[in-house]
Amino acid sequence: MSKPVAWLTRWEVFLLIVLIVTLVCGSQASRYFLTTSNLSIALAGMMPVAIVALSMTLIIITGEIDISVGSIIGLCASAMAVCLEQGLPVEVAMLAGVAVGMLAGFINGAIVVFGALPSLVVTIGTLALYRGMAQIALKERGVSNFPEWYQDIGFGTVAGTPIPWSLTIFLPMSALFAIYLHKTHWGRALFAIGNNREAARFSGIGVKRAILGVFVASGIMSSLAAIVLTAYLASARSDTAIGLELPVITAVVLGGVNIFGGAGTLVGVFIALLVLAFVQNALGLAGVTPEEQQIVTGVVLVATLIVFGSSAVLKNARASLGRLRPRG
């Protein structure tokens, strides 16, 4: 296959086409869709998911998964709320939230690595554990006595522009993650781990250290998402971010990251995040309820998995036929 044709068949190009179609359809659904204020709202609403998706990309590329990210966000938000209730400055509360997220991610990674347990099972367990801890810490109450500058992190915009402050947090981090994943030895090692863990170990890659590291990163990014989401909602509650793991995983898989590990790009994930943000926003403007929007997200995830599963079957079939052909 020639290079131009190969480029045209890349998943990222297909996602760009889907993004363009989404923008066109959204503009037909509502005349407010393509306004700068509405697009700003759509991006701001997606930022907590986008932040967590960066670290989730690394985890899934290694062949693992973290189902507990929503609960970690809730636990971090609860930790921040408790600090504020004790009269501590919001800056200290934010640091406490980051520390809690880092510890939660470390616990996930340590159990997976040193307990030699499947990450799916481990993080389903810690999903319940962290949410329970958040509910014990904060119970049913919410804390909303945040300063105005803090709330601007969630839904404020850079002075004189429609650019959300949260986007200025996400973009530099996405650039750092992209450089790490695609341009460094450590990033390439994650792909090697996802493709063949035993071969990666025999080639000298510190598999356990790498997997522990991506789970710690997931905890830290979840704590940053907790800061942004709490500011966006102007309230910290124990039930913050319930179900957030679904759109995060959907964005990563829709972005072309192989759910079994070993393949994917952050460029694809970035485009997928834009698609999901604008689809969700267009559906909201069209009067679709949040529950129905969640159904759409689930359908997108299942459909993407079917597409990738079918492509894998076709690829294996072609490889088998190639081996069966007589050589001459």
Q: Keywords, please?
A:
mainly alpha; 328 residues; disordered N terminus; globular
The gross shape turns out to be globular
Q: Uncertain segments of ≥5 residues (pLDDT<50)?
A: 1-9
Domain tally: 1
CATH class: Mainly Alpha
Structural class: mainly alpha
Q: What's the number of extended β-strand segments?
A: 0
Termini distance? 22 Å
Rg (C-alpha, Å): 21 Å
CATH topology (fold) name: ABC transporter involved in vitamin B12 uptake, BtuC
The CATH architecture assignment turns out to be Orthogonal Bundle
* DSSP helix fraction: over 70%
Average pLDDT for all residues: 88
Task: Give a brief outline of the structure.
This protein is an all-alpha fold and 328 residues long. 76% of the residues lie in helices and 0% in strands. It has one domain (9-324): ABC transporter involved in vitamin B12 uptake, BtuC (Orthogonal Bundle), CATH 1.10.3470.
Task: Describe the secondary-structure layout.
Layout: H1 3-8, H2 11-29, H3 36-61, H4 69-85, H5 90-114, H6 119-138, H7 148-155, H8 165-183, H9 185-195, H10 197-202, H11 207-233, H12 245-254, H13 266-285, H14 290-324
